[in-house]
Amino acid sequence: MLDLSSRDKAMLAGEFGSGAARAMRIVARTAEVMSAQTLIDITSAHIDGCLYHGQTSLDFVEFFVAAGAEVAVPTTLNVGSLDLIHPELYNGDASIQRDAQRLMDAHLALGCESSFTCAPYQLKNRPSIGQQIAWAESNAIVFANSVLGARTSRYGDFLDLAAAITGRAPYAGLHVAENRAAQIVFDVADLSHLPSRDIYFAALGLLIGKVAGAVVPAILGLPADTSEDELKALGAAAASSGAVALFHAVGITPEAPTLDSALQSKQPVMNVSVSLSDLDTIRSTLNTGRDGDEIVAVSLGTPHFSLSEFRRLAAVLDEYEGMPKADFYVNTSRFILWELEESGEAQAFADRGIQIVVDTCTYITPVMKKMTGLVMTNSGKWASYAPANIGVSVAYGSMNECVRSAFEGRVRFNG
Question: Do residues 71 and 93 share a domain?
């Protein structure tokens, strides 16, 4: 039976307003479904529900605005359906644009931060190891749990906002230490000397997601110099092909100094050996483009590009003269954009024909000039979702291959 605090009960009774009462009903009922015995305080929330999916999402949020509710903890927002910094990019229905704007504005009225990014872990204030949080957005969840060592279950639309308004979450799932033990061990091939590691980390994530589903995996053998961006690509892909919300990279992520630590001294239920040929096979399953095929665009930054990724991109661009023959998009947060603007790098990218997209992502809303044809990406998540979401076909390659292909206007795999 769920044991509520006196404050929880006061919220349920409407003493903090009708908005808080509804939010607490949602949190409490979810806790009962999850067999949680209590609720816990959270230190932050990340809201996935500002992406417009129809009138229901708008009605839900605007109820809380009308009720005078506010979020009780620092709360960031995931991507919306619009790039509010570059509204001219939107090529969709005007009524959807209007309601998408209303939905984004409604979340701001509740006191949420105007982050509009799928990578809130790239902001200045991010949770630390052991902190209890309520985050939505699959790649943000897996990064927070795995790379930062914070604790969050998989929160989705409506529940994420209810947790933010109440400041409470069910003490269940990955909030509980014993539920964070790895059960499957993946022993991976040596990735340290590959020329295009980004594509292999994403492919590894896709393979892990397909095998593990929602089970916590441990990964043996990742290079000691594995970067946050590579872990980001791995986690995002694993959350796309499966339901992975936490992985342990042995010797790299904070809860896995050793394999025994990751397993919490238990025996794994499965051991999986991963070869480079396995990863090449995974890559081929998402690739409908062949070498030499014409492309209409390149899209990078799903999840949102970091500063270090932009600087890697700049170094690759320096190898080419002139302008790309295909449209070239990079998705990132407005905060990363502002840092690029302060340093003058944003203008340098614009001068090279790179369109930076913020607040949203090219695979979920009509911002690309050409919405049919073959688009190249180095993102396992983009490659997984874009065909169904926006109707394009995908060529899936490394960042280097994407840049070369953009300048030639055709798919070019380096082999």
Answer: yes
